[in-house]
Amino acid sequence: MLLDRTVIDNPHYLDPAEYLRSADAPTVPQFPLAKVGAGGEDGTDSGWSSLTEAELRVVSGVAKGKTNRSIAEELYLSHHTVDAHLKHVYLKLEVHSRVALTVLALQHRLPLG
Question: How much is the pLDDT for 7?
């Protein structure tokens, strides 16, 4: 690989023939991202059940991919209120990102409609 006129070795590079051979073999992903539908693992049920209705509405907006400001407009709230709800949700569920929160929402089958 060439980057800024510097040759960089990629230890994960596969020759096209090797890549095609590896695609034929059924494999389990080495690093699964999430187990959707596995609800309740790792003690998240107690945190999930402690969420208020308002927090669940905010989580639903996050899972839909909305920004805090658009969630606030949809729910007729201040964006500061949405920020506060998310802070409480993150603490209760011990998550640190919107992606992790969305995964939990999918695992718990939170209605996104």
Answer: 58
Query: With a threshold of 0.70, does the pTM exceed it?
Result: no
Residue corresponding to tokens 């059940």: 49
CA angle 100, 72, 49 (to 5 degrees): 45
The DSSP secondary structure of 82-111, one letter per residue, reads HHHHHHHHHHHHT--SHHHHHHHHHHTT--
Q: What are phi and psi for residue 6, nearest 5 degrees?
A: -120, 130
- Give Cβ neighbours of residue 108 (< 8 Å, ≥ 6 apart): 39, 44, 48
Residue appearing with tokens 């080495």: 30
CA distance 50 to 3: 49
Rounded Cα–Cα distance for residues 40 and 14 (Å):
38
- Asked whether the beta carbons of 38 and 104 are under 8 A apart, the reply is no
Picking from 6, 33, 36, the residue whose alpha carbon sits closest to that of residue 109 is 36
